[in-house]
Automatic annotation (TrEMBL):
PANTHER family: HTH-TYPE TRANSCRIPTIONAL REGULATOR, LYSR FAMILY TRANSCRIPTIONAL REGULATOR. The lineage of its organism: Bacteria, Pseudomonadati, Pseudomonadota, Gammaproteobacteria, Pseudomonadales. The keyword Transcription regulation applies. InterPro entries: LysR-type_TF_proteobact-type, LysR_HTH_N, LysR_subst-bd, WH-like_DNA-bd_sf, WH_DNA-bd_sf. GO terms for biological process: DNA-templated transcription. This is HTH-type transcriptional regulator PgrR. It comes from Pseudomonas graminis.
């Protein structure tokens, strides 16, 4: 019977098309991975990879074998990890992919209470704007909005992601406070571009009553970052549509005023993404539960625009 080491070496090498990368992910040497794969091929009596100096590709037999064992290996490893500690104490490195601004404002303040509760869990956070391949990149958890659910990944909502209209008291001075979206249409604004098309964004506002309105502002400044949008709005450069959670601190101090408080743009939600496997590691399970509970009880109003 094959060892888990042989099977994992094969599966990781197949996933990353590289013995070196498989070794790096497993924390062993490339020579060890190559030896394990060679032993597996010998035991099976067939070649699983075509090797040359530049590439590593699966043979037909290797491709068929990978399809049969890849998911099973993940399940077995998770079961072994969970059963191996009868106390089921959350422990080990917890690899998290998250955007820097979200981490600074919402995750880092939670790190101390989480560590006090689960001291054996070691946070291994990767702060980046790049979207993670949760399984392929070896992350336990990813946090963000609008991420596509790939096979084997599930999501739990943390908070709504709403844009709200804001402006500074200086900008509003001498102007009539907008009562309807039509009053704001065409007004000077701090706007942003679509990341897909490069065109200036027009947003669809919606109300609690289910009404909608397509709002376009006259560009006074164009920014591609929510903090920059808020900063320009605070300087009185125009009205702006910004994430509620970015505007929230300035709404509390009065440096920004919310316009059209019954209206907002619905961009979906911020969620925590993790593996759908049944035997989820305790470290992942407690971290997800910790985040969901915290956002549900204390953070919801900072994100909701309606």
């Amino acid at each position: 019977m094959e060892t888990l080491g042989n099977l994992e070496s094969f599966v990781r090498a197949a996933q990353f098309r590289s013995f070196s990368e498989a070794a790096r992910r497993m924390g062993v040497s490339a020579a060890a991975v190559s030896k394990n794969v060679a032993r597996l091929e010998s035991n099976l009596g067939t070649r699983l990879f075509q090797r040359n100096t530049r590439s590593l590709t699966l043979t037909e037999a290797g491709d068929a074998f990978y399809a049969q064992v890849a998911d099973s290996l993940e399940t077995i490893q998770a079961a072994v990890a969970q059963v191996g500690d009868n106390r089921n104490v959350p422990a080990g490195r917890l690899r998290v992919n998250v955007a820097p601004s979200f981490a600074y404002d919402y995750l880092l303040p939670l790190l101390k209470p989480f560590k006090e509760k689960y001291p054996a869990v070691i946070p291994d956070w990767h702060l980046t704007l790049a979207r993670a391949d949760l399984v392929g990149d070896g992350f336990d958890v990813a946090i963000g909005g609008g991420m596509e659910l790939s096979p084997g990944v599930v999501a739990r909502e943390l908070a709504k992601l709403h844009l709200v209209a804001v402006a500074s008291p200086d900008w509003l001075e001498g102007r009539k406070l907008p009562q309807t979206p039509a009053d704001l249409q065409g007004q000077p604004g701090v706007v942003t571009r679509s990341t897909d098309t490069g065109r200036l964004r027009a947003w669809t506002l919606r109300s609690a009553a289910g009404e909608t309105f397509d709002l376009t502002l006259d560009p006074a400044a164009i920014m591609n970052d929510p903090e920059a949008l808020c900063g320009c709005a605070r300087m009185g450069m125009g009205a702006a549509l910004v994430p509620m959670e970015r505007a929230w601190p300035w709404l509390q101090t009065g440096e920004l005023v919310r316009l059209l408080p019954e209206w907002y743009v619905d961009l979906g939600s911020v969620s925590v993404y993790y593996s759908a496997r049944k035997a989820l590691p305790a470290k992942t399970r407690v971290f997800v539960d910790f985040l969901v509970e915290h956002f549900r009880t204390t953070m919801g109003s900072r994100f909701r625009g309606g």
